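Researcher: We're teaching a course module on how sequence relates to structure. For the next exercise, students receive a sequence and then see the predicted structure as tokens, so they can try to spot secondary structure elements on their own. Here is the exercise chain.
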Amino acid sequence: MAGIYIHIPFCKKACHYCNFHFSTSLKYKDAMIQALLKELELRQDYLQNESIETIYLGGGTPSVLDVKDIEQMFTVIQWYYNISSLQECTLEANPDDLDKDYISDLKSIGVNRLSIGVQSFDPVDLEWMNRSHSAQQAHDCIHDAYTAGIDNLSIDLIFGSPTTSDNIWSENLELATRYKIKHLSCYALTVEDKTPLKALIDKGKSLSPDDDRVARQFHKAQTYLKSNDYLHYEISNYCLDQYQSRHNSNYWNQVPYIGIGPSAHSFNGKERQWNIAHNQKYINALTEDTIPYELEVLSTDNLYNEYIMTKMRTSQGCQTSVIKGMGEKYERHFLESLSSLIDEGKVIRSDDYYVVVDDYKIISDQIIGDLFI
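Model: And here is the predicted structure for the students to work with:
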């Protein structure tokens, strides 16, 4: 099985915290669509006719596209890829782009899952983040999705921002569970370089995230969502039973995937490719039937570190037998590095797996770093 990711590099507004590749100008949207279609054609042999299980349109904001644009992509995918085993087709969307008609049209062309960038149901939060939608639109789009017949919804929520009090965070979680949202991605606000938020903080015009608040709200999500039958299956992701994101889970399980669009990554088990993060250069190259990418052949060290980085973020954890299969050097390093983490109660063993203890998941990145070779 394999997946296809398509990066749509357009947004209506620049959120203060975002460092993804996008443009707020739609001037070259049509040229970009044609370039994406051409790359889908040129990449057809990359996965060696591996059956496609998931398609994911991310960005940016894919919901700025017309349904006919998305339908063109699906048509080209059907021409060049084996989609006989397709299970999940996700589109990322902003609430202000979604209404019943648009969602119904998406469903009719094969979209069966929406990942909605709600971020918060609180208007003060949304204004501080510079989001393009209102709190009412966040509510309305969920109702519209259910009415249109797509109930496999994921929503993003951000915690730890200066405007997100503990009460607001609790209300966001309560609303999500009241709506019976199948999947939640809960992200701590992070300050990335070259973002408006970083510039505002540097100029003293915004507060930095408070570490204590971040930790408190992270643990609130853990306990509250667990009490409402959500599985905390990855550090930032929660779901009701059987509603894990298949596409993202495949990333974490090192399943091959192809990335289409500027800045998109591809992985075939042996090497990683990433496209240029520049819209006009990407379009120009595809006009000449050339894919503008860089390539890295992965060493065993790379593969070991990637396995640690992805699997230790999940509820399943790292499997000793997998690491053993990489060679004695990696098994020895892994077990030796684990020793102090186990003694400190941060990691436990479950059968052949080692997993991060719930209370320490908030410092998973630090634990993962300790295990790198």
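Model: If you want an answer key for the exercise: The two ends are 29 Å apart (CA to CA). The chain is about 40% helix and 20% strand.
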